[in-house]
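Researcher: Final request for today, and then I'll write up notes for the group meeting. The sequence and the SMILES for fe (ii) ion follow.
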Amino acid sequence: MLAKKMETALVNQVHEEMYSFYLYLAMAEYAAAEGLPGLQHWMRNQALEEFSHAVKFMNYIAEKGGKSELKALQAPPKAWKSAKQVFEEALKHEGHITECINNLVDLAYTLKDHATVNFLNWFVGEQVEEEAAAKAVIDMINLTGNAPGGMFMIDRELAARPAAPNPYNPTPAA
Ligand SMILES: [Fe+2]
Ligand SMILES: [Fe+2]
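Model: Predicted protein-fe (ii) ion complex:
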C-alpha cells in the first residue's frame, strides 16, 4: 500500500507526464507547419515517450493498490520563434520535471517508502538523458549558427531518431 500522501504525489506526476506528452505534441505540430518533418518526427516520438512515462506511473500506482485520477490538461503553447527556441523550452520543461522527480524521491525517503524510491530511480536516470538530449540539439543548432542549409541538415539528423516503443508494451520480446 502507498501512503495517501505518496499516492497523491505520484498521481500528480501522471498529470505532469501527460502535460509533457501534450507539450511535445504541440511542438510536433509547430514543426509540421514550419516544414521541419525531422523535428516533427523527433517531437512525436518524444511525446510518445512521455505518454509511456505516464503509463509507467499509472502501472506502479495500480500495482501498489492505488488509483490514478486523470485531470484536465492545460492547452500547451501553439507557436515558438524558432526550432532553437523549441528546444530551449523543452530543456526548461525537462528541468521542471527533474525537480518534480527529485521532490518525489525526497517524499519517498521521508516516508521510508523504499519500493517507491527504487521505482523512482529509473526516472532519476531518465531525466539526465532527457536534459542531455535537448541540450545536444541546442548545441547542434548553435554550431551551425545561421549557416545556409544548417537547419535542413539538423532536420535530417532529427529524422533519424528511432521510433519510440509501444507505451503499453515498452519491452516486447525480440
Ligand atoms: Fe517524462
Ligand atoms: Fe521528458
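Model: Helices lie at 4-33, 37-63, 83-110, 114-144, 150-158. The chain has one domain: 4-70+79-158.
Researcher: Thanks, that's everything.
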